[in-house]
Amino acid sequence: KLNRKLVHVSIGLVFMLCWPLFSSDHRGALLAASIPGINIIKMLLLGLGIWKDDATVKSMSRFGDYRELLKGPLYYAAAITLACAIYWRTSPIAIALICNLCAGDGFADIVGRRFGSWKIPYNRNKSFAGSIAMATTGFFASVGYMHYYSLFGYIDESWEMILGFLVVSLATTLVESHPLSTELDDNLTVPLTSILVGTLVF
Q1: Any keyword Transferase (predicted)?
Q2: Better-scored residue on pLDDT, 60 or 189
Q3: Would residue 123 be called left, alpha or beta, if left means φ above 0 and alpha means ψ between -120 and 50 degrees?
Q4: For residues 111 and 117, what is the distance between their CA atoms, to the nearest angstrom?
Q5: Contacts 24+ apart (CB under 8 A), 52-59
């Protein structure tokens, strides 16, 4: 479980670190998006049982069932692909989406499993420790990438943007802790919330 979550945390964040390697026009965004886009095809092939890869299935599924890859892992790859292709590195929405999906949601599970004895009343599957970890790591990762991209001139960092990141991180944390989010999938609800709230605050 820890290995699966470390993969969850690292893939998107490392991918964003590489965005300055691509050209600034829309072709650069599409070329970069093709990298996680290939993983969409891979998730479909694995999830449908067309391609066999037990190691990948174990690293990305909760229970070792290849059909799980048609849900969370597929949503994860699709969210990162769309954030890259549509919003790209000049948009704080892309930063907020990937940071809350990868760092926030990933550390929520890691911290929640170890220190999550105090459960949230409306969802006993979630803990206050996990939710606090999600809000803080998602927020600080977003601010970190804002500063990183500002060094290249892609974004003008500001206190208003930092406040926007805080609002998005709090909103995604509330949605992630809701029982409906557990039923649907965090990898779907967190990106959708990031886009919706990010569109309103940025």
Answers
A1: yes
A2: 189
A3: beta
A4: 11
A5: 59/3, 59/4, 59/7
